Amino acid sequence: MQVKDVICPFCGCLCDDIEVTIENGKITDVARGCAISRELFLNHDKDLVKPMVDGKEVSLEEAIEEAATILSRSQHPLIYGLSSTTCEAQREAIELAEIIGGNIDSTSSVCHGPTTLAFQMVGEVTCTLGEVKNRADLLLFWGCNPAEAHIRHLTRYSASAKGLFTPRGRRDRTIVVVDVRRTRTARMADIFLQIRPNSDYACLQALRAILKGGKLSADEVGGIPVEALVDLVERMKSCRYGVLLFGMGLTMSRGKHLNVSAALSLVRDLNRFTKFAVIPMRGHFNVTGADAILTWETGYPYAINFSRGYPQYGPGEFTSVDLLARKEVDAALIIASDPVANFPRRAASYLSEIPTIILDPKRNKTTEIAKVVIPTAAAGISAEGTAYRMDGVPLRLKKVLDSPYPSDEEVLGELINACLSKL
Ligand code: SF4
């Protein structure tokens, strides 16, 4: 059997043209997806976990019951992850956080959290990836490397995509890359500006100053000659439709949300001359959804604390890495994420000192240390639901295979009922 128009649940591109072949309940072929997507679908049944408590296999009901006992007894629980599951599961996780008076935080806090802070400061002149494909004749990639991290972005939406007003694809676009090293994306650019590490803010403000008619007294800014900055400003001003796409090279270097607010301000300023938009290059397939759902439900995008019965916002205070490093939580529920592999050592190791519960279809570093492991159906393969593409467009994930386990949404619903009966 062939299933068409499947959405790839891996990165923020959410490519929705994948064709999956299923034989005898197994995915045997994947067409159109990139190498990562093929691996994701073809290995969907490898390294699966079983329900476990303290390293012993138990029934799913026993694992859920143990998790509910831990969460209902906890004084300061943390719910973390959310970016690789559906919006419906994210909504259930927020309800659970409110019921147990816990903290809730997504992987945004270690990737594009500063982006959301900057959106709140400056606002966002944005567009869809469809507009990038059909209209953009100048692309400025800043601190991101889609050739390796969002593999089909360049062919499907941006650099070489053929669109309505860009029929010749790559030949109809100028591509500029600003980065600290010559990445694969930089190697295919028309212009590569190698910036000194942690100079993004200075360079962006220099571009704004030049755009406003200022003359710089320095010869270079952040390692980039002023003539190159002036040239870039002229190109940006005179393009028909420009788009700035930025990644963690901007959000996680010195300045963080101030870098992003400078980038957003530059794009806003450019709209006095031409049409210019900005899109963050989001990593996990539904991290944009996590920001959106948390904001709808609580007013805040991440780092939220419900201990007073209402949501309080505290980046740096209620962000997971900070809470764990300061040992301020006494239990953790991880949803579709692997913080032990990704967090700084101090925060990661504290997860093994407290009762940690994980919802995930597959084995990872966090399932190895978790007290309770609850297997779930993989979102976008064995569970349907909604996910937001990096440009904020919601898409419906398909279920292409059955799973013996319920979805994240269903398990979280059961946890809510079990916790309510214990509180
Ligand atoms: S670019 Fe991302 S969403 Fe598209 S097929 Fe590759 S991994 Fe999947």
Q: What strand order characterises the main sheet?
A: 5-4-19-18-17-6-7-15-16
Bound ions, cofactors and other small molecules, one mention each: iron/sulfur cluster
Beginning-to-end CA distance, first to last residue: 47 Å
Please report the number of helical segments: 18
Mean pLDDT: 97
- The computed structural class is alpha/beta
State the CATH architecture of the largest domain. Answer: 3-Layer(aba) Sandwich
Question: Segments where pLDDT lies below 50 for 5+ residues?
Answer: none
Description:
- There is one protein chain.
- The chain has helices at 35-42, 60-73, 87-100, 113-122, 129-135, 146-149, 153-157, 184-187, 200-211, 226-238, 248-251, 257-270, 287-298, 320-325, 339-342, 345-350, 365-369, 408-422; strands at residues 2-6, 18-23, 26-31, 52-53, 56-57, 77-81, 103-106, 138-142, 174-179, 191-194, 220-221, 224-225, 241-246, 275-280, 304-305, 312-313, 331-335, 356-359, 372-374, 385-388, 394-397.
- It contains 18 helices and 21 strands.
- It is of the alpha/beta class and 423 residues long.
- The strands form five sheets. A nine-stranded mixed β-sheet has the order 5-4-19-18-17-6-7-15-16.
- The structure holds iron/sulfur cluster (SF4).
- The site of iron/sulfur cluster (SF4) has 13 residues, from helix 1.
Summary?
This protein is α/β, with parallel strands linked by helices.
List keywords for this structure.
alpha/beta; Rossmann fold; Dimethylsulfoxide Reductase, domain 2; 2 domains; five-stranded parallel beta sheet; 18 helices; binds iron/sulfur cluster
